[in-house]
Amino acid sequence: PSRYGNGYRSNSGSGTYVKSRTYRKSRTYRKSRNYRKSRTYRKSRNYRKSRNYRKSRNYGGSRNYRKSRNYRKYGTYRKFGNYVKSGNYVNSGSYVNSGSYVKSENILQSSAVSNSGVIPAVSTPATHQFTYGTTATLSCMVLASPVATSVSWSKYNSQNQLVAIDMSTNNNLKYQGSTVGNPSLTILNTVSGDAGRYVCSAKNAVGTGSSGTTTLKITGALPKVTIPQPAYSISIGNQITLGCAVSATPKETAVFWTRQYPNAGETTISKVNSAKYLGQTVSSPSLIILNTDFNDIANYRCYATNAVGTSSSQPTSLNVLGSIPEVVIPLNQYSVDYGSSATIPCTVTANPTHTSVQWKIIVNGQEQNVDMQNDKYSGGTVNSPSLVIANTQHGDETFYICTASNSVGEGRSNQTFLDVGEKVCKLYCSNGGNLNEVGQCVCVGGWTGTNCDGQIHMRLFWAIAAQKS
């Protein structure tokens, strides 16, 4: 009960009670119009939840309002910096009409927003990167209401001027796409000249919208070709491999070799002559030379080609080692007794190794080959080059030459002369007698005499050593 009594409280309209603190704390007061107009009510949570608060000016400046859906729909939100930076603002009519939009890189030609829609919104990635010689696709996305009726691409030239790309049928081997259904631009077989800045544009009934610039980067270079050695050497007649290594992006498509003689130009080595050369392919770029000879002494280069172009290695030299055999007969003359066996020595030094030996004699001033099939002769081989002549006759007395051949050629010795002695008279010792070192018979068994036959006489005979009787 109040100090004013029950009757007084019931009379809630009395001025004294309405103004009292007790009344302002009561439920009756909180339900009254005066409470809703008071500052206490406006600071309470109930007020912030009420429709009156949302209609008030205070609600328009509050954080709760800025988080609400209504805030984003009202003009107040569109005046804030956050809205200007947001995607909703960029796509809105206010942004299209603003000075920022007209000055941005997103627009080449701008027209006012009509009541029927907006110009197309066109976007592309900032960069594209592709390998030289491949197919490059520059992505482009178009959002338009009303729908886009055409799509085009342009590229900045060296003078920083935007030039439209020719998409006519005459250029369809280079470019594809750039249509409403496929707005992206496809560049076939890219080259270094395709690198640069591009712009995608789309047109509808309202106007033309363009993307920002997208940069196309083309990667790739000429092949890197290396030969591991600056020089090679090989013995004549052997096989040699001239190494070559190729590193290329894009991948090499061809490999070939050239040869250059002193004071002459480069010539391409034939790939058809497989009996002489092997290799020179993408999978096996090294050059294999079969059965080398002195004609192979030259400078060589390895070349490789890819979509960018052709490059070469540093030159390498090939030296072929070898010479004709060196053939030596130690003396200018040899002597032999008539009917005896004669040996004419011969030595051969050869690199590469000699493959044959041939003896020659001078007959009436002309060279003739010694017939090694005759039993009279032996030797004259690679392993035993000296010549052996059995039962020498006066007809064997002449000049002799030893020759040897290898893959380089034939080597010859100097001439040597064979001197065959005269026939000699020999003492014959009978009855088992032996001829001593001084040419006298030493008799045995009681025999006496010059020839051990008991008589004082000498029987002479002519004999040819080693001659068959």
UniProtKB/TrEMBL annotation:
GO cellular component: axon; neuronal cell body; plasma membrane
The entry's keywords: Disulfide bond, EGF-like domain
Biased composition (Low complexity): 1-15
GO MF annotations in UniProt: axon guidance receptor activity
Record GO biological process: homophilic cell adhesion via plasma membrane adhesion molecules; synapse organization
InterPro entries found in the cross-reference section: Cell_Adh-Cytoskel_Orgn, EGF, Ig-like_dom, Ig-like_dom_sf, Ig-like_fold, Ig_sub, Ig_sub2
Domain (EGF-like): residue spans on this chain: 421-453
Disordered, as annotated region: 1-66
UniProt biased composition (Basic residues): 21-57
Disulfide bonds, paired cysteine numbers: C443-C452
Domain Ig-like: 120-219, 223-319, 325-419
Coiled coil: none
Protein name: Uncharacterized protein
